Amino acid sequence: MPKEQQPDEPHPAGAAQPPVQEPQPSATGPQPATETGRSAAQPPAAQPKRKGAGRNLPAAIGVGVALGGAVLASLFVWIPAFLALVVAAVIVGIWEMARAVGVHKARPPLVPLLAGGPCMVVLAWFGGADVLPLGLLATLLVMLVWRFAGGARDYQRDVTAGALIAVYVPFLGAFAALLAHPGKGVSDGAVRVLVTILAVVLSDTGGYATGVFLGKHPMAPSVSPAKSWEGFAGSIVWTGAGSAVALPLLLSGAVWWHGAIFGIAVSIASVLGDLGESLIKRDLGVKDMSNLLPGHGGLMDRLDSVLLALPTAYAVLAFLVPPS
Fold it and tell me: Model-level pTM greater than 0.85?
């Protein structure tokens, strides 16, 4: 078989020139060429699926380790630094929530929230649980008056969004200060925060692992399709068992059944907190509260399981294992 003539080779003299092939019109008109020269009418070749889609796992692990290390260092090296961390987290959380509700054109009074949120945390730290509701009430009143300047248009929408943020972020977050500094002369505040964080981690990890292997019945498919009743049961079992071991080892005066009750209560609150934030995000139509933390989304996306767990842990520990 003769060798095929290459396009850039000259034809021998006298050789018959191949007929020029005119482009045939397409039934659908001329087709634009792609970057590779393939007509858009031709289906592209199957591309292999890219691995690693989704979250940036190395970044997520690095950020998680850094945040956990900062919390532990502040608790056990210099406890006032923990107050600063809680205040910073509240400020960031308020900003993220205000930004998220802005998707639906709500404009919560940001200045009263950014001022009142840290005040709630500081009041809880120095004044205890008795004065925390006063901080919330003052924040709400100032917010209502502050919004007068914006006129009547959308007033109800804006102050309702502001009230949600005030309760959800600084009020619940202030219970971290109450756990760490529940009264004068208290020596185990750092441990109380530690066992609460440990319970939330056990709940998240146990629920995820159980749901992956055993999950069959969706818990709330319209809110969080990945959650299953089997995973919820796994969260409770893992957290109850882990806390039954951890509390007697870490907290003076606690026995195993104190830890079991504590773990079950915190696990339920943690799952409900996670579902609550998922509900808010679905209502707003956002995937993450922000992109502040690489691999995680926003800070509120990491605090969703913690915020409702904090007052639950504070109440259960205050009843079962009073501060020493």
Answer: no
